[in-house]
Design goal:
about 400 residues, mainly alpha, 2 domains, membrane, MFS, transmembrane transporter activity, transmembrane
């Protein structure tokens, strides 16, 4: 018999289900990063496509955040998650068999859009979780998300080197199908009342942004922090190639494994947010991020980079988990839309940080990159000490 989650019968979220949802989140998000370490290999076969595949995948992800993730507030999320994973598998197969730039671009956009299934899973887990456990639950899922982001580049680099770039996408197809079947089998049904119109659903996000100061604070804070995170990972290969290091791309990939230490922060931050309040944990996170960039600024040594990347990932995860804890408490019926606003704002910050990071690197070097991100981190700190304002009831539903 299919399980369901009606409003008057709370669902008991088992730990095994939380871990399965965390794994599915990592599997989904990994697909938008597989291409990055393979671009040089792809360029030998499809030179024009190689320069487009990464940005159009990111574009697809942005479109999915705005157009698909809000559907979680309208329709059965169990079926949405299953459907998006199936589309993701089909898009990956199309990408693996693509023989032209047009096919590569189209398939990459579709991969990016359907990979936003990760952002369907996270608010669904928050919805299923008891309020006193919500922070820990979101923290576990964010561990899966960060693991997918960090390990995807390392895995893709090794697979592409040994088997070719198409092999990575072929391998990803059955993985996505397995995630689809697993989620459909173990997730409870998510009954919804008669849905509002899609245009009204999308338009309501403007009211959510306007009426919830805590949403704006959380989203802007995470955008500033993620700008630094993206700038670091964009510039790192160029920094490591400098004469004082002399390392190749494979060493830059290994930093992703080092950054996995930051995965440990997510569940710890979630539990701390449950017991001590998420605002305090956000403040800890932004100060840790600021400390990591201060370390990068005063010491450009290998040991400083290793310690700094651990601090950076730890701080980012602590702030992100706690900020999501805050926004999911604002309006339970609008969690998918709240997540869309939060993640889209963060994604914009990350894209800006990546673009500005490489520009500043080319014109000023590592010292200027650290100065730029320290300034952004200070802004994130200042946001935490703005006076709290009363929330308005937006009537966004």
């Amino acid at each position: 018999m299919t399980r369901s989650t009606p409003a008057d019968a709370p669902f008991r979220l088992r730990r095994s289900l939380v871990f399965a949802m965390s794994a599915a989140t990592g599997i989904a998000v990994a697909n938008i990063y597989y291409n990055q370490p393979m671009l040089n290999i792809i360029s030998h076969e499809l030179p024009h496509a190689a320069s487009l595949i990464s940005p159009v995948t990111q574009l697809g992800y942005a479109l999915g955040l705005f157009l698909l993730v809000p559907l979680g507030d309208m329709f059965n999320r169990r079926k949405l998650i299953f459907g998006q994973f199936i589309i993701l598998a089909a898009a990956l197969l199309l990408l693996a068999t693509a023989s032209s730039t047009t096919m590569i671009v189209g398939a990459s956009i579709l991969v990016g859009m359907s990979a936003t299934v990760a952002q369907q899973i996270i608010p669904f887990a928050a919805h299923l979780s008891a309020p006193e456990r919500r922070g820990a639950t979101v923290g576990t899922l964010m561990s899966g998300l960060l693991a997918g982001i960090l390990l995807s580049r390392t895995i893709a680099g090794y697979v592409a080197t040994g088997m070719g770039w198409r092999a990575m996408f072929y391998i990803a197809v059955p993985v996505a199908l397995a995630a689809a079947l697993t989620m459909f089998a173990i997730l409870p049904d998510d009954r919804k009342d008669a849905p509002a119109s899609y245009p009204k659903l999308i338009g309501s996000m403007r009211h959510l942004w306007r009426n919830y100061p805590e949403l704006r604070r959380a989203a802007l804070t995470q955008a500033l922090l993620f700008a630094g995170f993206s700038a670091f990972w964009t510039v790192l290969p160029f920094l490591l190639a400098q004469p004082q290091f002399g390392f190749g791309a494979e060493i830059a990939g290994l930093f992703g494994i080092i950054g996995m230490v930051g995965v440990l922060a997510a569940p710890v931050a979630g539990r701390l947010a449950d017991h001590r309040g998420p605002r305090m944990v956000v403040r800890i996170g932004v100060f840790v991020v600021l400390a990591s960039w201060a370390l990068f600024a005063v010491s450009a040594t290998l040991s400083a980079l290793i310690i700094g990347v651990i601090l950076l990932d730890f701080g980012i995860q602590s702030a992100m988990v706690s900020n999501q804890h805050i926004i999911y408490s604002l309006e339970p019926a609008a969690r998918a839309r709240l997540n869309t606003i939060f993640m889209a704002t963060m994604f914009i910050g990350g894209s800006a940080g990546s673009a500005l990071g490489i520009w500043v690197w080319n014109h000023g070097g590592w010292a200027d990159v650290t100065a730029m991100i320290i300034a952004a981190s200070i802004l994130a700190v200042l946001l935490q000490f703005r006076p709290r304002r009363a929330q308005h009831n937006p009537g966004a539903n």
